[in-house]
């Protein structure tokens, strides 16, 4: 399949659709954005960190020698030779790669490498089981979901919740007294803290698409927070309305307290009952959503839990205790490691994830180069063969006073979604301010009109990753109007 493009001189050129259509079909938004590829950077800054060390600083992303080797040596010295603990958090169906040697030096190990996983469920008695990872060896590499690459890295494609666990690679040419089929509690402690050799443990979390081990929340809260069978199902995000805050009360508290909690980031919370400290680990601010005009940034705070006292054992949950003891930064509150411990925990177990917003204004940069390849080509100069460019549309009917939720297809909490009214970009902060909170774009990028009015009868477009995803035509019979201060546009 090909397309033909005619330039200003009447010359026509053919382009292979598989190579050129993606660029050609990109929508050019009616405002400037800092970078066409910003959506990926936006996601990496908004999502919880993938790679966190057990010491005070972040593991360096550069795993090339010699910088990485220097870091490992310093780490072992600080941690008295204890293993390096790394937490990886992915969503279902993602592709994860675990490196056998953290610094990528494949010569460190022999060629008899085997990947193993510490099972999170106890086997017979009080023993813990170490299982060997079965590697796929199909004739067609595309059919291999779990495989090892040339540098002994473990690949897991289309990750599922069954892949959760603690992974490590083992050189079968060397004897390791702690790598056995079964470990008792005392051996488990030595497994995580022994300094006889350097080990790297990968604690893999896979977010489920279903609601995970959490008490059902009130229907009103779930409806407001879009708590559907999605990866973000039970992650509360701010700002919340006063009514939602009321639903979340565990015991009666002064109303002002709940207003404050909904307006400010949550403070650190200590539960001696759980032997845990609950706190928020804030990610980086996202890039500014637009340039040359007022936009907005946001950052996501992930609920974390770390040990309150290393001297106090979490009884009957030894594996969780030893991982927390060696992993100083703690674990995400919704880690599957807490699943069996969940119903023994205090009310703080449901501490929410948070989202914070702020306005921004950045300059637009030309970026050199030749600009957009097809930016000046008019649509009437393009002939498509067996291809039709058409934006999806839908009509939404509402009556005065209705609540209207416009959901951009395929988007999630991690997506940089642009909502456009005509040719005007609408930011969440400005929209709330202009309409006195009657209209907002919530943390899940849903365009919410809490009380619809006649002024809302417009066409609203949502776009992300350079594509128009849906045009919503809002129509209805509205009876009254409010002043200019309450209009969306």
TrEMBL record:
Superkingdom of the source species: Eukaryota
GO cellular component, one term: membrane
CDD domains (UniProt xref): Ig
InterPro entries assigned: FAM187A/B, Ig-like_dom, Ig-like_dom_sf, Ig-like_fold, Ig_sub, Ig_V-set
Keyword Kinase found: no
UniProt subcellular location: Membrane
Membrane topology: Single-pass type I membrane protein
Record-annotated Ig-like domain positions: 83-169, 386-462
Annotated keywords: Glycoprotein, Membrane, Signal, Transmembrane, Transmembrane helix
Protein family (similarity comment): Belongs to the FAM187 family.
Name of this chain's protein: Ig-like domain-containing protein
Organism: Mytilus coruscus
Native organism taxonomy: Eukaryota, Metazoa, Spiralia, Lophotrochozoa, Mollusca
């Amino acid at each position: 399949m090909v397309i033909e493009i005619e330039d200003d001189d009447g010359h026509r050129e053919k382009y292979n659709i598989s190579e050129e259509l993606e660029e050609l079909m990109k929508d050019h938004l009616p405002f400037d954005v800092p970078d066409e590829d910003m959506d990926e950077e936006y996601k990496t800054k908004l999502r919880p960190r993938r790679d966190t060390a057990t010491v005070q600083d972040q593991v360096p992303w550069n795993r090339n020698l010699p910088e990485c080797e220097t870091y490992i040596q310093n780490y072992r010295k600080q941690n008295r030779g204890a293993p390096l603990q790394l937490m990886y958090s992915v969503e279902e169906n993602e592709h994860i790669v675990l490196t056998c040697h953290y610094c990528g030096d494949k010569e460190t190990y022999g060629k008899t490498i085997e990947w193993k996983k510490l099972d999170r469920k106890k086997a017979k008695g009080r023993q813990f089981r170490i299982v060997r990872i079965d590697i796929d060896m199909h004739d067609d590499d595309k059919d291999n979901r779990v495989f090892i690459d040339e540098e002994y890295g473990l690949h897991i494609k289309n990750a599922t919740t069954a892949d959760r666990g603690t992974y490590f690679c083992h050189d079968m040419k060397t004897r390791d007294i702690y790598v056995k089929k079964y470990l008792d509690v005392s051996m488990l402690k030595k497994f995580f803290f022994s300094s006889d050799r350097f080990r790297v443990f990968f604690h893999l979390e896979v977010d489920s698409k279903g609601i995970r081990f959490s008490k059902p929340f009130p229907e009103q809260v779930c409806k407001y927070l879009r708590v559907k069978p999605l990866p973000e199902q039970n992650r509360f995000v701010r700002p919340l309305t006063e009514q939602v805050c009321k639903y979340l009360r565990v015991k009666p508290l002064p109303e002002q307290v709940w207003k404050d909690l909904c307006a400010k980031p949550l403070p650190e919370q200590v539960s001696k009952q759980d032997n845990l400290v609950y706190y928020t680990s804030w990610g980086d601010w996202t890039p500014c959503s637009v340039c040359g005009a007022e936009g907005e940034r946001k950052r996501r705070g992930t609920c974390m839990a770390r040990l309150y006292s290393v001297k106090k054992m979490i009884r009957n949950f030894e594996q969780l205790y030893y991982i927390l003891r060696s992993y100083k930064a703690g674990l995400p509150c919704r880690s599957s490691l807490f699943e069996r411990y969940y119903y023994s925990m205090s009310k703080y177990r449901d501490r929410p994830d948070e989202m914070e917003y702020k306005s921004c204004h950045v300059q637009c940069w030309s970026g050199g180069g030749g600009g957009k390849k097809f930016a000046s080509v008019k649509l009437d100069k393009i002939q498509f063969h067996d291809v039709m460019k058409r934006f999806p549309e839908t009509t939404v009917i509402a009556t005065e006073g209705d609540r209207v939720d416009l959901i951009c297809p395929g988007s999630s909490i991690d997506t940089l979604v642009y909502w456009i009214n005509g040719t005007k970009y609408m930011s969440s902060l400005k929209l709330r301010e202009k309409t006195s909170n009657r209209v907002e774009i919530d943390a899940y990028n849903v365009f919410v009109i809490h009380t619809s009015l006649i002024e809302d009868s417009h066409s609203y477009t949502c776009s992300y990753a350079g594509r128009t995803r849906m045009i919503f035509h809002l129509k209805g019979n509205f009876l009254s109007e409010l002043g200019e201060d309450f209009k969306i546009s």
